[in-house]
Amino acid sequence: MAVYTDVSDDDLAAFLEGYDIGAPLSCKGIAEGVENSNFLLHTSVGYYILTLYEKRVDVNDLPFFVGLMEHLATRGIVCPQPVRNKLGESLGALAGRPAAIVTFLEGMWPKRPDARQCGMVGEALAKLHLAGSDFQMKRANALSIDGWQPLFDAARTRADEVLPGLAPILAGELAHLRTCWPKGLPSGVVHADLFPDNVFFLSGKLSGVIDFYFACDDAFAYDLAICLNAWCFEPDASFNLTKGMALLSGYEGVRELDDAEAAALPTLARGAALRFLLTRLVDWLNRPEGALVKPKDPIEYLKKLRFHQHVAGAREYGLSR
Amino acid sequence: MAVYTDVSDDDLAAFLEGYDIGAPLSCKGIAEGVENSNFLLHTSVGYYILTLYEKRVDVNDLPFFVGLMEHLATRGIVCPQPVRNKLGESLGALAGRPAAIVTFLEGMWPKRPDARQCGMVGEALAKLHLAGSDFQMKRANALSIDGWQPLFDAARTRADEVLPGLAPILAGELAHLRTCWPKGLPSGVVHADLFPDNVFFLSGKLSGVIDFYFACDDAFAYDLAICLNAWCFEPDASFNLTKGMALLSGYEGVRELDDAEAAALPTLARGAALRFLLTRLVDWLNRPEGALVKPKDPIEYLKKLRFHQHVAGAREYGLSR
Question: Do B21 and B53 contact (CB within 8 A), yes or no?
């Protein structure tokens, strides 16, 4: 959750004068999103999400994110749509920060996803991969394998504060993945953060996907591996094979994995687990005094990593071949 | 800001089945309120605030708060209205906590209140005092002078962590106020926490008052003294006499202070400053690791207290006689 920046009523009113969406009626900071400040904005015209982009987001990436959301919508993916101001711009400035207004999506994210929802997420992820195939902008994944070493370096000396012996485990995993990280897999635009809190459901259907602020170009199967980690484990860190089967068959109902992708899935799942373990670890060790953000538990992802280390093939995740 | 408790989508749907306000469409934790978890709830019928009452609120007080909001509305005060469930109850249970749904009020609270807004708040406070005069339930003010000693005792040994020499300042002020705290002033239901974030404005008018969870029986002029502290100081802790005049004349336009109230105002303002200084100090010293609540600065109220210690009479706050 995050609201880092306060917006004064006067500043908001002035900002909205640049748009054609009426005058502000209410604007409440919401406890969603970790990277940015988000507000649920009601104007005389409707409901919107106002986002102020905080330091962790590179302003040079914003046109990619905003352009992607617009592109995906034209391909039938339900996601927030940037609202353009009177000058035709979808990015402005408010309270000293880059700011955007996007449409409000109804729906609720599942606190305890079930297998049916995992299936729908798999399907949505595959559709997203196909829909992004003709998006022209590119963004490298700063949090893929080349980005993990600097994260590890930042956490190495203090990793034992979280769990004694954690640093050598991370070093070993990183060394292993460097020897076998797959190359040349089918790639394109991936969401790269499709956790349950970024997927809304309404009346038993998937109603929308939000938070494209990690989206980038990478292997599609890596995106799927992130979802296996995020959706298919139980709170006790056990892997739920039924959910894995649902996620993978939902995905393959739209886009079939090729043999190289299927073979790489255990390695990609290890990498995905390590990626979230490392970023959570760095966040944990650097949580600011009095911060409004509750850091997520890194150890959850160590447990997932340990599971993947013993997986011999994608069948163990529920792949049907 | 506060969202302490997560509500699962299933639990929410089940809870709403007890009400006649349709099915949930979205439910977002909002960064408002310090004592409770608040959610902006959209159902197929409309917009509501869902509140889960956390530990710091005594469940035995809830009927008072809920009853007061209903009473004030019948007297023309715009405030959130409890929604009763199919059994006619305005209090239920959700996620293991007492829970209530209230109507959503449009409007925005002023981050930098101006004198005109101070005038409107004074007027609203007086109307609230009159509107509460025939409310039948009673609730003692646990945070009046008798409640300050235990707060001081809880903070005494560690007060110097916040500012060296703070403990003797607090002890001296407490001793002083015990000698001269006024008795027998006109009393009734007071809001007791009418800070800017609890007052909404829309199109230049005061549109509603929220957060009655400190409301209690106490001297009306003490409530006014709380507002002088909360509305009439600048960020540099200087007292803005124009705002003070506006607040007091706004109040007196509806309900005139008697001579005893006017004479007691400097003492009441000192007490109000000490009350928020003490609660903020205790919160500051006891902020939990990883908490989602950013504790408020106690020293802001020490500066206000020091101002009041040099006030000789209510004219210095802007009272016109």
Answer: no
Q: What is the interface pTM, i.e. ipTM, of the complex?
A: 0.80
Which of B292, B294, B297 to mutate to probe the A interface, most A CBs <10 Å? B292
Which residue of B15, B26, B201 to mutate against A (max A Cβ within 10 Å)? B26
Residue ranges covered by each domain of chain B: 9-103, 115-317
Cβ distance of A107 and B26 shorter than 8 Å: yes
Residues of chain B neighbouring A25 (CB-CB closer than 8 A): 106-108, 202
Nearest-Cα residue of chain B relative to residue A285: B290
CB distance B26–A201 less than 8 Å? no
Least Cα separation, residue A141 to chain B (angstroms)? 29
Q: Hey, are the CB atoms on A111 and B287 less than 8 Å from each other?
A: no
Fold held by A9-103: Phosphorylase Kinase; domain 1 (3.30.200)
Per the CB < 8 A criterion, the answer to whether B125 and B194 are in contact is: yes
Tokens of A189: 């635009």
User: Is the dihedral angle over the CA atoms B205, B207, B211, B217 positive or is it negative?
Assistant: positive
End-to-end C-alpha distance for chain A, whole angstroms? 39
Is CATH 3.40.50.300 what the domain over B115-317 is classified as, yes or no? Answer: no
Strand partners, B190: B216
**Nearest Cα to Cα of residue A231 among A191, A291, A267:** A191
Cα B118 to chain center, whole Å?
16
Fold match flag (B9-103 vs B115-317): no
How many DSSP H helices and E strands does chain A contain? 9, 9
Mutation to test the A interface, candidates B1, B9, B103, B198, most A Cβ within 10 Å: B9
Q: What is chain A's pLDDT, residue by residue, as a tens digit (321 residues)?
A: 455 678 888 999 999 999 999 999 999 998 776 678 899 999 999 999 999 998 778 889 999 999 999 999 999 999 999 999 999 999 999 999 999 999 999 999 999 999 999 999 999 999 999 999 999 999 999 999 999 999 999 999 999 989 999 999 999 999 999 999 999 999 999 999 999 999 999 999 999 999 999 999 999 999 999 999 999 999 999 999 999 999 999 999 999 999 999 999 999 999 999 999 999 999 899 876 655 556 788 999 999 999 999 999 999 999 987
Gap from A84 CA to chain B (nearest CA, Å): 24
Across the interface, do B26 and A108 touch by the CB < 8 Å criterion? yes
Compute the nearest-CA separation of A203 from chain B (Å): 9
